[in-house]
Structures are given as C-alpha cells and as structure tokens.
Amino acid sequence: MDKLDYKKEYKDLYLPKTKPSIIEVPEMLFIMVDGKGDPNTSESYKNSMEILYGLSWSIKMSKMSGTQPEGYFEYVVPPLEGLWQTEEEGFDGINITDKNKFIWTSMIRQPEFVTPEVFETAKEVLSKKNPDIDFSTTRLVKYTEGLCCQIMHIGLYDDEPATIRRMGEYILDSGYVTDINEARWHHEIYLGDPRKIAPEKRKTVIRHPIRKAGS
After folding, report:
1. Which domain holds residue 58?
2. What is the predicted pLDDT for the residue at 1?
3. 40 lies in a domain?
4. Are 63 and 71 in contact (CB under 8 A)?
5. Which pLDDT tens digits describe the chain residue by residue (215 residues)?
6. What is the distance between the alpha carbons of residues 100 and 40, in angstroms, rounded to a whole number?
7. Under DSSP, is residue 88 helix (H, G, I), strand (E, B) or coil?
8. Angle between helices 43-60 and 116-129 in degrees, nearest 10
9. Do 62 and 77 meet the contact criterion of CB atoms below 8 Å apart?
10. How many CA atoms lie within 13 A of 109 on its CB side?
11. Summary count for the chain: helices (H), strands (E)
12. Which ranges of the chain would DSSP assign to H, the alpha helix?
C-alpha cells in the first residue's frame, strides 16, 4: 500500500510556485506547541521540536506495537510549520530586530484518524521515554486558516523580507489586503531538513492571511 505523502497529495498547500498565489486553506488537524524566544537559541523551541516530532512519530509507529488507531493508514509525517508573532502585534515577517521577542506556535499536521484519545496515548508513550518533558503548551487543534496568499521562498530565512514584499505587492494588485492580526499570524512551512540542506537551497512556504480590500 502506498504511503500518503501530504506534500505530494496536496501540492496546492505545500508546493506553491515562486510567484505568489491566492488559496483558500481548509480545516486541518495539528499538534501545536506554543513558546517564546529566538528559535536559534531558545530552550523552549528546542523542546517544542522534541515534542512535535516525538508525538508525531509515536502516532505513526503505533502500528509496530499493534496499537494503531482505528482508521490508521500509512503516511509520511508532514513538514514542520510555524506561526510567528512578536511582542508587538502585527509582525509580517519583515521587521524584526530582536529575535528574542518572537512569540511562536510550532506545529505538525496530523492524519484525520488522530483523536484526542490517540493524542493522549502518544503523550503517555513519549513521557515514558522522557519523564521530564513538559506538555503544558502542547495541544491538538483543528485549525482553519481561510483565505491566504502564499509563495515559495528559496534561500536563507534572513532573506525572506524581499520575497514577502513581492507577495505584498501581489496582494494589493489582486484587490486584497494582508489580514495579520492577533488571531491570524505570519505562517511558514519548512520543506526538507534544514540541517541537511545548504542554506541557499532551503525551501520555505510563506503564507499570509488576506481579505478583500474594503471588507
């Protein structure tokens, strides 16, 4: 049986062109972890990665122990994603001088068969491996992003502002405005393992919420 690879099955969500495009993002299921600080140095960000990948792989590999959930199917763990804000609301991915002021939600999409019970079981499995792990900001969420504009950025994360400005021009030219607020944040999807990819070849989907101008 072929594995479901979300990136290949839903190319409109994960593989946009380097030219901006408008998309209606549907409801999806995520494990999310909230935190603050510079992702390059923050201990909480490091811990969030351990939690997200630990839970995701516990669910995926539940078949090995014969405890796979009802409706389980073979799949590839979807890519890491991040919602980004700063202590000053309205961060658009461009103006950041102090990364220690980041407020973020890191997340990985989950298959539809992951229920709250499956989520709790995965937490129990991970806790046995690491009794000190802190799940206080970890949650299973159905998240609907709605109307957005997105673009593929290729290169260093610090070079994203030029790509975002180009996307911003497209949004205005298309009759929309960027709708970043306290509920809708700057969104990034990280394709591939940045530890194994040269910085200049990294692929990052950048997605901004939008609304019709004047609405």
Report:
1. 6-212
2. 57
3. yes
4. no
5. 589 999 999 999 999 999 999 999 999 999 999 999 999 999 999 999 999 999 999 999 998 887 889 999 999 999 999 999 998 878 999 988 789 999 999 999 999 999 999 999 999 999 999 999 999 999 999 999 999 999 999 999 989 999 999 999 999 999 999 999 999 999 999 998 777 889 899 999 999 999 999 87
6. 9
7. coil
8. 120
9. no
10. 22
11. 5, 7
12. 6-9, 11-14, 43-60, 116-129, 160-173
- Both tokens of 56, joined, read 């995701």
Q: Can you tell me the distance from the alpha carbon of 121 to that of 55, in angstroms, rounded to the nearest whole number?
A: 9
Q: Does residue 156 belong to any structural domain of this protein?
A: yes
For 165, the 3-state DSSP assignment is helix
* CA separation for the pair 189, 185 (Å, rounded): 13
- Does residue 1 lie within any of the structural domains? no
CA dist 106 and 212 (Å) reads: 28
User: In this structure, what token pair is assigned to residue 145?
Assistant: 């992003």
* pTM tops 0.85: yes
Closest CA to 91 of 107, 105, 102, 106: 102
Q: What is the pLDDT of residue 152?
A: 98
| Position 186 in a domain | yes
Q: Which of 71, 73, 78, 37 is nearest to 55 (CA)?
A: 78
pLDDT of residue 87: 85
Check residue 68 and give its pLDDT: 87
> What is the CATH classification number for the domain harbouring 123?
3.20.80.10
Please tell me the total count of domains within the chain. Answer: 1
175: left (phi over 0), alpha (psi -120 to 50) or beta: left
